[in-house]
Design a protein that fits this description.
With 376 residues, this protein is of the alpha+beta class. The protein is built from twelve helices and 22 strands. The two termini are 18 Å apart.
Length: 376
């Protein structure tokens, strides 16, 4: 059957692109290899979908071309998606740091997007596996075949393979001559050695890697480090990098450690859980004025700049997103169309654009999907 546009992938970006194109009066086919749409939407935000962020800006994204994503984020802002959510009377709340979540369920966001596709008269085929693309965008797949002059790849990345994640889009783009920026798991926990005895402890810390730093909750797990501070850091961490942890970012240790007649334990007991205090300051029972200035400085340095070199991330199974992907240098930022293959478009996570933790990746999906949907 002939269509104006075929979209591969019924996730956040694909649904947005298909609905936008369909509502323009185009005949749209949306193919999904899973048996249902939006599986990642449904599990996001603990089932409540952190669907955008009130302060989404280009600086919250990692891309080999730091300017590529600016146009789409400006063309379709978070306030426009919020207006759509409000139009559907979906109740939501700000959790923290501008992060917006559904009050009830992520199912409401998925239902809204599917209804937008219905308004646009989009044909959706589920279970469309074994997709093959030949000349002039003739597609064959389990359940049928179709042809269109425009093809939108919205097939995502490798994160969470249990819900059907694949590198289909990147492999197809490479076959068409596009460069692929090496992909890696991001917004994910980091594996470390020697801290498993502290499993379960959470602490607000400052974490640094390279030029990036963040103050947030960090959770110590039996495998290593997790929590918002580490997930955010993981976007910038590369294998071999060490991270530095300031365990007391809001405490002036120079002022705290002037009370020389007290023990380290008495000064720090309200700052740390006991297990963490024993780990970080084995000298805790010593009185300050009985310790050399050199030893005190070593303890300060340990608390201010504790160095850890993670062995790896927890991998795609635990990662919220995939960093890397289709190199944006051969993609038109104003249309999302390939500069190498006329009629081929890319949206969402399939591209080398990765947002920070907190609703930014959904906003990229909405923005890039709308730009492509308006351009096909």
């Amino acid at each position: 059957m002939n269509y104006d546009v075929i979209v591969i992938g019924a996730g956040a970006a694909g649904l947005m692109a298909a609905a936008t194109a369909g509502k323009r009066g185009l005949k749209v086919l949306l193919l999904e290899h899973n048996k249902s749409a939006g599986r990642k939407i449904l599990i996001s935000g603990g089932g409540r979908a952190n669907f955008t962020n009130l302060s989404a800006t280009p600086k919250d994204y990692l891309c080999s071309d730091r300017n590529f994503h600016r146009f789409a984020l400006k063309e379709y802002r978070e306030k426009e998606f919020i207006s759509l959510v409000e139009k559907y009377k979906i109740k939501y709340h700000e959790k923290k740091l501008g992060q917006l979540f559904c009050d009830v369920s992520a199912k409401e966001i998925l239902g809204m997007l599917l209804n937008e596709c219905k308004i646009g008269k989009v044909d959706i085929v589920y279970g469309a596996s074994n997709i093959k693309v030949s000349e002039n965008f003739h597609l064959s797949f389990r359940g049928g075949e179709a042809t269109a002059p425009k093809l939108v790849l919205a097939s995502g990345g490798l994160s969470i393979p249990t819900i059907g994640a694949t590198d289909f889009g990147q492999v197809l783009a490479k076959a068409y001559g596009h460069k692929i920026i090496p992909m890696r798991a991001a917004l994910v926990g980091l594996k470390t050695e020697g801290m498993s005895s502290l499993s379960g402890i959470s602490q607000v810390v400052e974490v640094k890697v390279g030029k990036f730093k963040v103050v947030e909750d960090m959770l110590i797990t039996h495998k290593g480090l997790s929590g918002p501070a580490i997930l955010k850091t993981s976007l910038y961490w590369q294998k071999g990098d060490l991270i530095k942890i300031n365990w007391l970012p809001d405490t002036n240790l120079d002022e705290l450690f002037v009370q020389s007649k007290k023990t380290f334990a008495s000064l720090l007991k309200d700052k740390f859980p006991q297990r963490l205090l024993e780990f970080l300051v084995p000298e805790q029972k010593k009185v300050l004025n009985e310790v050399s200035k050199k030893e005190i400085n070593k303890i300060k340095e340990r608390l201010r700049s504790y160095e850890v070199t993670p062995s790896s991330t927890e991998g795609y199974r635990k990662a919220e997103v995939t960093a890397g992907g289709i190199d944006t240098k051969d993609v038109d930022q104003k249309t999302m169309e390939s500069k190498l293959v006329p009629g081929l478009f890319f949206v969402g996570e399939v591209l080398d654009v990765t947002g920070q933790l907190g609703g930014y990746n959904f906003q990229w999906a909405w923005s890039s999907g709308v730009v492509a949907g308006r351009s096909v």
